[in-house]
Protein 1
Amino acid sequence: MPEPLIDQKFLERLERLTLHWQKSFPGLVGGHNASRYSGAGQEFLDHRGFHQGDDLRAVNWRAYMRLEKLILKLFQVEPRVPVRILLDTSASMTTGEPSKFDFGRKLAAALTYVGLVRLETILLQPFDSALHDPITCGGGRHRFRPVVNYLEELQPTGPSNFAQALRQFIAEYPQRGLVILISDFLDERECEKPLQYLADFGHEVFLIHLWGEDDRRPPYNGELEIEDAETGQSVKLNFDDEARAAYVEAFDNYARSIRDLAMRKGGRYIGVSTATSIEQAIFGSFVEARSA
Amino acid sequence: MFFFNLSLAEFTALFAAVSGTVLALYLLDRSRRKIRVATMRFWKPSEKPPEAKHRRRIQQPWSMLLQILGMGLLLAAIAQLRLGSPDRSSRDHVLLLDTSAWTAAKADPRRRLIDEAKIHAFRWLRALPGSDRVMLVRADALPTPATVFESNRAAVEQAILQSQPGASALNLSAAFDFARRMQRQHGQGAGEIVFAGAGRTKQNELPDNAALPPSLRLLPVLEPTRNVGIRSFHLRRSARDAQLWEIFVAVRNYGRVPEAVPLLVTFGNAPIGSSRLTIGPGAEETARFEFRTKSAGWMEARIQLRDGLAEDNTALLEIPEQKQVRVAVFTRQPELLRSLLAANPRIAAAFSAPETYKPDTDADIVILDRFHPAQPPPKPTLWIAPPAEGSPVALAKSSGSTRLTRWRTEHPIAQGLRTLDLKLEGAELFAPSPAIEPVAEAEGGVLVAAQSASRSVFLGVHPGLGAMKYELAAPLLMANILEWMAPEALGRWEVDGESVGSIKVAIAPHTDPASIQVIGDDQQPLPFSIADNTLQFYSAARGNVRVRTPAGETVYSLSLPDVGDTPWEAPARVRRGLGRIAGASSPVQDLWPWLALAGAGLLLAEWFLFGRLRLPVANLPSPVALLQRFTAVFRRTS
């Protein structure tokens, strides 16, 4: 019997959390500020006189009985900022132990659950070199099971192409919102620019950078033949402590550049090693990132 | 510690070859390690150029060591490494299992001696090294191999289980000789000769203690201390009364204390005699009874005593029907023959005048006294002085006086007759011819002749007239003639209850071996030998054996078990019990399953740590983390 993607105890702990975003999105009252506009909501906002074309269901009939005037009730609009989770399903996510892909799926499931508990509408969008069929969920925690089934059936394939995938994303989802991007950000091409475009488009980006310990600090020595998981290309080289130090430095520089990009664009960045547990990542790194 | 399949040199050579192969494969495999990575973006080759000899260096000595160790353990498992003494030579043992009649005795009410012997044999068999071969020989009067030299223990155990007490006594000397011969002829490496049983044998079949096999081992059993048995049961017709049977029962005390033995003889379950015999230890007593009957039936002798062996407490004999021979005598002078015929009580003679003769006379024997019928009787006939005209045998002459010169003693009719130089008046002499067998000769011809084909006898002289009347030869000649003509009824008839084995019968001197028959229950002749007027035959099975000689017939009812009368006392130097068995002194332990497991485990560990799985040691979770993971999995599954 395969290990369940996420267990019940962990879900119960997740119910205390909330997804936060910092930006105000045009056309929407987002965040957790009360809306200045009236509309279809639950919370009472104000009264005004009835005008032709107003919804008769909003007429305060008690006031009419008493004052013989048609007075309309106004309600506070609830924020409906779209939350979209982009999950990298390229082949590079399969390297390392435990697999970054599995770790990413668990993270995506946990964040979706947090959103569902707060009645958010979540879009879960896998991608590698292009977008794949997404799943949209909302309406409460009891809608979580289809998400789990969907994630369990995902398979990592193909090379990653951030430029192409994010261009497609911007085109398909013009409404701005919170974009949580779970990836190792390893693209043979450049991935900084597409991320910058995404942020510039108006989305609030939340970059979750996953890596395995092997990815950051390869433990190997001697003559190696390395093979790229995505392209299949192989290179023979000699690897020693000095080369390892250079590798680690290059990796850290790259991670730092991703982080700087996110911060510069008003987003957030979290680097997570797959050696840490999923609980530790959520309740440690994620919570710290919010307070930061 | 030793290798069951390989010598040390073979194992070392193999191990070196395997180690070399593993090293070569290792160097080939590990010369450049293949790694699958997420990106090649950060990989930069080292500034230092790789050294040329680098490829020939062992980069992961622990991996190499684990592989060689694992392969070595697997090789040791294949070679069946064992702990124990390196006894490489397979030995051949002979297991002599006592199956004599005595092993049916019980020292313990629940168990026979042979059952005890089987238990000892099983224990010895299971203590043997697995490579040794065993031949099972069932030892009684004749040692009989039940298996060949067999390394399959199940087959030997099956043969042991199927062994049952026989009817004959143990011939221990022959058993040891047979075992030695088998080891010499078929054995590869002579092992032990093991005797399991009681060892009770006959005095003349005791082995020579000085020439015992050096590798002899005894697995003795506890014998019963008390046993009394019937040794022989003999019935004989009384010479003076045809219907009287003389019964002799010989009883032996095999125990060490005197016994008062109640003996009972029954005929058709009706008691006909009883006796109480007091028999000393090792002694034999004979009881005699008489019983009158002319009917057939079963006669049984029974000892009413509870002892070790029940089989020799009863003997059973079949008594044949008593027949009388009817003799029809046609004579004008019956008084001349009446006394001669009355001498034998089994003859019923009827005298008639020659005129009353009929060819179909109802009789077993016909006597024609100086009378020649127109149609001879189709039965055994005694012709006394047949008339010259119409004589069935050609006459040489009818002399007024002649002299008896010779008895042909090789003929049964002439046996025991010595009278010579007898002057006979008015005797008729027959001409010698191939049709007749001369029995007595006189001057000028044959005086007494016989014809076997028709069972007829021709007397040239009347036994009740002239000089013959006063000679002892006359009644003897008459008795011999009648016995020869009706041997079934008038021959000597004895019934002997004996034990199986070798039987000796005294026969008359100069008896023609061709005239002797020894016939078994299945009417098939048994082989026999004759030496010093003693006929000897052997029967290992219970049943009846008939010995027919010209003098009569003796029926041997071989129903009694042949119990050895002498317990064998083995010298003190002979090993007893299981003790120390060569090759099995240190218990041999098979290690190959553990070696195979350890080898496979090491190879698996190497594969996990250094192999294709490429689980770096640095990335291995700590034991505590592993434990936590296992606990979590266990909780989920439960």
Protein 2
Amino acid sequence: MPATLAALVEEGFAAPPIADAAALLEDLRGLLDEAADRATATIAEVDRPLRLPKDRIARVLACEHQSLLAREHDLNEPVVRGRVLDRLLHHHVHGGGGPAPAGPALAIAEGAFEAERDDAVLDWLLEDPPTRERIAADATAFVERLGQLGRPDPSWWPRCEDRLRVDLGREHAVVCTAQLDLVVGGAPTELPMVIVEAKSGRFGQDHRDGLFWYALLAALRHERPPAAVIGWSAYDGVGWCQPVGESVLRAAASRAADALDRIGELVRGRPATRTACRACAWCVESTTCPSAAVIDPQ
Amino acid sequence: MRVVRGVHDVPERGGDRPAVSAPDRTWAKPGNASEPRAAAIRKEATEVLRPLADLAAPVAPDAEAPWDQLVRIAEHEVDLAAACAASLAFDGEFPGWRASFAKRRLGRMVLERMRKGAIADPTTIARDVVAAEVRTSQSGLARWLAELGPGGTAAVVRDAVSFAVAARAAFRTWPPREGTRFDDLFSWQVPGRAVRLEATVDARADATRSLLVFGGLDDEEGERRDLAWPALVATLRTGQVPNDVTRIDLVAGDRRRVAVTDDVLDSGLTLAAAAVEATMAARFAAPAPPTPGRWCRRCDGASTGECDAGAAWLRAPSSTNPYES
């Protein structure tokens, strides 16, 4: 049965707060600040700050070699599908309710891209008609899934694309930014904060790790941990709510510190290791990399 | 490319700005005498800036500004001049509205409605703000908003809501102190010259003569500019020195407050002189020599190759970081 936003968020609001969260956050910030300073010790001033988006953490921990190859801003079908879902979510939350607008669902997302002047995505959507047709069909299905999810209660002050930034180390050595799909509650509302992440595919471990990182960043930014993170998939309508406890935040900090250490070593010239992982499937060296060969194509 | 900004609908950095100078309403009422400190800085600003602006169209003492020739010096020009004076020569025309440009202006309208007691949720208020803008305004922003479909409007509302909620959360007490108002533009024209200094503040509190600006990630110098510029222009405009300026980074939550001392005003005047000189050179004479640096990544001169030094900086394999920064 598809999850409803109301049920997931109410579950999140009811999550117990972390005891002595301030001390925990101070501890974790210290850990991350030290890792940031170690990682950037040899980076030239002109290349500072080092950016640490969640995808870079996932990539360097999965396969160092692939993380150096990855072109993070390239468009491809999964990326565009995800962006289309985001715009449909924004319309779902900020569109004012009422009956669905006439016309194809993809037109709603394209209207948003036009308002954002995201010409790269608009051009990409025009390049290949069969791909566009697939994305248009997905968009129609996403709108149906969003309808099943239900709208957020206005009293939660829902907002999409809430941005936050946490600077680590000396003089903003490492800058961690996040753009949250949907946030409800938080300081102005006197409700606990709950973060919602929507995915166009099935939720996997990478997505969970990414959401935990967002929980840590939100905790450091607002000096108070969010009550919960919610993952929701527009692919199957499944959602889950994870209360943000100490272990969630510690796990996220540990992964980020590990990623920073590796990045620092790579910056200092250590050869990158190759590790077979999920990313082999779309890695540009998948046919020549010896590690990729061990992945079962099935 | 020369500086060809028109006077209509030019956005402030990361936001927007009303098409013409909106008069500040209560801080210094017409006829109020200037404070001696403010009068002194006005005199000094006139002495410093007037010669630098000699190439701009001369203006008779009581004449209306020649709008088609007016040179506007705002936060954007101040920032460019501080990084690389030559970059002003490559600063193109306003590329048109987009959601991220409209965010601050619409977000401040949402905040202003909240301050006045609106009790609806931010999304409802933002949608009302957009509808009212389309209905009642003749501005370029209103015309652009009127053309948007449901997805575009939702994107605009989304950005205004996230801005307004972040700003609302940055206020430790709500409603803010009596006499606070969101969104104001201070402007001051260099006497006898078609050059106008402009500073947009996100909020002002008349009771305490405080100014508030929202800023983003920047270095120490950038933060100082954000604080000194509105302090100077507000002083020149109103004839009264603000008590303090606060800068809040809504994304990171960092906040910094400075008392408006003579040092702050001097810094503002130095910024004004650099920006006026660089803008005059870019528009009417040979641009200043370039000072290449990381800002070349955002400069059209470097990316198009019109600026040799900037293009060379972009090509130079100076990076020690294998990841994109």
